[in-house]
Amino acid sequence: MDIHESCFERLAAAYPDQLDHRGVWLSSWAGLENSVLSRTLSWFLKNWARCPTIAEFNEETTRERDRQKIANRREITDACSNCESGFVILDADKWIVRPCDACRPEQYDRWQTGKYRAS
User: Which of 25, 23, 17 is nearest to 53 (CA)?
Assistant: First the structure.
């Protein structure tokens, strides 16, 4: 049994009278990463009393994917030995920094071209 099948079984067990259309659910999950699917399902099982619709589930997978991207970026930034939390200090007295070219290459490229805006 693959992770998609296993997740559907968990969902069906949690909401036995509210869930059908196994094939529709599984096809809607076809492009999902295993970690996104599993964590999204766990979130619903913990926080919802009713079975989510496929649209609600897919909406939450988008948020979970964004959370995983942020966590992944944080891990890369924390492991970088070229900077302090993703930024290289240019002038400590004036608090002037730039994005790190090693762990934040997209932001660094925008900074070099003058298109970077810190949030």
Answer: 25
Contact 54, 27 (CB under 8 A): no
What does the alpha-carbon distance between residue 105 and residue 108 come to, in Å, rounded to a whole number? 5
DSSP 50-110: SPPPHHHHHHHHHHHHHHHHHHHHHHHHHH-SSSBTTEEEEETTTTEEEE-TTT-HHHHHH
**Six-digit token pair at 90?**
């240019």
Name residues whose C-beta falls within 8 Å of residue 28's C-beta, 6 or more positions apart in sequence.
54, 57, 58
Phi, psi of 75 (to 5 degrees): -65, -45
Its pTM surpasses 0.70:
yes
Burial class (CB in 10 A: 0-12, 13-18, 19+), 103: buried
Q: Report the SS3 class of residue 47.
A: helix
Local structure of residue 31 (DSSP, 8 states)? T
Q: For the segment 28-82, what is each residue's pLDDT rounded down to a tens digit?
A: 999 999 999 999 999 999 999 999 999 999 999 999 999 999 999 899 999 999 9
